[in-house]
Amino acid sequence: MTTPTDIILHQQSKLLEIAFSDGARYKLPFEFLRVFSPSAEVRGHGPGQETLQFGKRNVILTDIEPAGNYAIKLTFNDGHDSGLYTWEYLHELGQYQDAMWHDYEHKLEAAGASRD
């Protein structure tokens, strides 16, 4: 299993930088992390139950807490703090960030919603 070797919070640029034991290093924007939260509130309890997140462009990551040896819990300034970001999920977010963001932008457009 791939585990983080470094986690750096960049408040100025609103990025969470994560380096992994397989050599991968990702910079994940706060907005991206919030929009793709692993919580049931965002993902639902099964396929098709997702809730489109919008208006999160300026969200700030205010706290990071360890959750065992396998995940972190992120707290955002909009009050969202549920869902555990496992190492596997964070690696996946980094790996597929571009495609996931592109898909998200299309969903926003189709819903007539905005990042603001």
Give the uncertain stretches in residue-range form: none
CATH-defined topology? NE0471 N-terminal domain-like
- Helix and strand pattern: EEEHHEEEHH
Query: What oligomeric arrangement do these chains adopt?
Result: single chain
In the CATH scheme, the class would be Alpha Beta
Number of helices: 4
The percent of residues in helical segments reads 25-40%
Structural class category: alpha+beta
| DSSP E strands, number | 6
Structural topology:
Blueprint lengths: L3 E7 L4 E6 L4 E5 H6 L4 H4 L17 E7 L3 E6 L7 E3 H9 L1 H15 L5
Question: What does this 3D model show about the protein?
Answer:
The protein is of the alpha+beta class. The chain has one domain (4-44, 54-111): 2-Layer Sandwich (NE0471 N-terminal domain-like). Helices cover 29% and strands 29% of the residues. It contains 4 helices and 6 strands. It has helices at 30-35, 40-43, 87-95, 97-111; strands at residues 4-10, 15-20, 25-29, 61-67, 71-76, 84-86. A 3-stranded antiparallel sheet has the order 1-2-3. β5 and β6 (84-86) form a beta hairpin. The longest helix is centred in the C-terminal third of the chain and has 15 residues, at 97-111. The chain is globular. The termini are far apart.
